[in-house]
Every structure is written in structure tokens, then in C-alpha cells.
Amino acid sequence: MLSQIVSTYKRGEIWWYSFTTPNKQRIRKSAKTTNQQEAKELAALEYNSYWRNEKLGDVSFHTWQEAVLLWLNEKPERKENRNMLYGLRWLDQYLGKTKLIDINKYLIDEIKKTKQISGVKNRTVNAVLQQIRVVLKCAYEHGLLDKIPPIKLLKEPTRRIRWLTEYEEKRLTVELPEHLKPIVNFALNTGLRMSNITNLKWSQVDMNRRQAWIHADESKTNQAIGISLNQAALTIIREQQGYHREIKNAGAKGWRKAVYRAGLGDFHFHDLCHTWATRHIMAGTPLYVLQELGGWSKADTVRKYAHLQHNFCSNTLNASSLVAQI
């Protein structure tokens, strides 16, 4: 019966779905997946939500697990993030089949205390709280929840920006397995996140115009990002012609072992983005230009690099003063 009400269809490689709600509202959405069965499940879940809400005025039956499934299906690459899935499995023991309307401030505070008692840092606790927040926000946006309970994060010490020196980059390059070298080099030349690099398709690259782009549904900010490709990035792309092996997680065992052998300590894949941004600042790129190049929607994201610009300017002024004395 439901298969007659909900229809799925393809646009390019992505499945979409459409249906008419009991109140005659036409819904058309991207399932953001290349799997038709996942698209059907997502469509059925959303249709049932509309039916319950409009016919019964009832949102009380939806559970945390339903909301997690809905959130994961929004962006298929989320299912490839092992750290994220580990966090969701940890939360499942506390929230699992809990109804969304029963997830309140007090329950969330209990989860927060439990995580703190385990001895982890505030940053790790906040990652759990933010995971709860984004799943509940997704449920709210799809009509599974009337309101989102307040979630207060813990204070975190200001993190230093970690980037590679040229010497560290050479050490890392020597230790990297061959299949990771172009990915890491591309990150250093574009500032892109791991998932944006590993999911990049030929249809998203224009070699003649020296540009690439990330679709809005693949971006962390949900806004399309245009990337200017320098010569090094273009060369890396050209060298991938004829290679068809897909790599979903460049931060896995091979990466971690290379970082360890290179003696880089707590260096993470995302720090390659910091390296790209830091080098731009030290080369004199203005903050507003860096914000545009990096596809960041908020200026606050870029301001953490401002002190580097000041240091660069101070060094330049000191050098100018020295030249004047000579």
C-alpha cells in the first residue's frame, strides 16, 4: 500500500522520493543516497511521521533509534565515519528505544555526568552532547519532535592550531603509504576535509577553468563550495586518471601509523586544513579572502588564524626597520 503512495526516482546517481501528505501537501526530497532501498526506508519513515502528525496529532511514538537512522540516511558518508558510529553505539545504551519526547534536559545531564566520570576530557564530552543535538535537530526538522531540549556544553581550553612545518611535511610524506600520498597532498593544496576529497567525482572538476566544487549536501555548512585549483592540485587530479580504487577513510590505520613513524604526535587529518590555512595567512592572504577560499560561513572560524597574521605583520615590520637602519 505504502509503495503506491511513496515514489522513488533517480536524479543522476542520487535517489529522490516524493509523496502527498494526508493534508495534500506535496513533498519532494533528495534521499542523499545511491541506494534505492535506503531511499524507500527514509521516505516511508517520513510519510508515516506526516500521517501520524496530521491524522492523530501525535509525535510521541518516535524513538531515538528512528531519529538516528533518519540522520544517518541524510548523508550516506556519515555511515563511513567510525568514530561517529562508535559514539552513536555508546549513546544507544542510554537512549536506544527511548521516545524522543522523553529525552529532556535531565536525561541529557545524566549522560553528560556518566561520560565525565569515565575520565575523558571536556572536548570528548562535548562531542557526545553535540551528537545528541544534531540528531534531535534532524528529528525536529522532519516533524518527529516538537522542540529540542536545551543542551549546555562544557567549557573547553582554547586549542592551539596544529600545522605542519615544511620539515614535518617531508617526514610525513616519506612515511605515508602510496595510496594516501595524493590525498594528503591534495588536502594541503586545497584545504578540503577528508570526506570532500574521498567523495570528489570527475563531474565536480573543471580542469580547463581550474576549478572544483563541493555540492551543498556534501558540505559541513550545507552550502556549496567552489575550489580554485593550483597547479599542484591539478597535477594530482590528472595523475588519478585510470585509478578506480575508492578510499572512504584516509584517516585509518595507514594514516595513524605514518603519523606515529614521522613523530608528529597528536597530528590529525583535519590539521592538514589548518596547515593550508596557516600557510595562506603567512603568505599574506587576507582573512576575508581565506574565508571565501575555505568555504566557511562564519567569520569566527577564520579569526582563530588572525594572530598568525599579526605575527607575520610584526616580523615584516621588524625586517623593514632593520633594513632602514642599514
Structure description:
It is a single chain. The protein is mostly helical and 326 residues long. It folds into three domains: 6-56, no CATH class; 64-142; 166-318, Intergrase catalytic core (hpI Integrase, Chain A, Orthogonal Bundle). The chain is built from 15 helices and six strands. Helix 2 (36-56) packs across helix 3, helix 3 (64-74) packs across helix 6 (122-141) and helix 5 runs antiparallel to helix 6. Keywords: DNA recombination, DNA-binding.
Q: TL;DR?
A:
The protein has 326 residues and is mostly helical. The protein is built from 15 helices and six strands.
What would you say the CATH architecture of the largest domain is?
Orthogonal Bundle
Q: Tell me the CATH topology of the largest domain.
A: hpI Integrase, Chain A
- Counting DSSP E segments of at least 2 residues, the number of strands comes to 6
The top-level CATH class of the largest domain is Mainly Alpha
- From the N-terminal CA to the C-terminal CA, the straight-line distance is 87 Å
- Overall mean pLDDT stands at 83
CATH superfamily of the largest domain: Intergrase catalytic core
Hey, roughly how much beta strand do the residues contain?
5-15%
User: Strands of the biggest beta sheet: in what spatial order?
Assistant: 1-2-3
Number of helices: 15
Q: How is the biggest beta sheet arranged? A: 3 strands, antiparallel
Structural classification: mainly alpha
Keywords: DNA recombination, DNA-binding
Family: Belongs to the 'phage' integrase family.
GO biological process, one term: DNA integration
Protein name: Tyr recombinase domain-containing protein
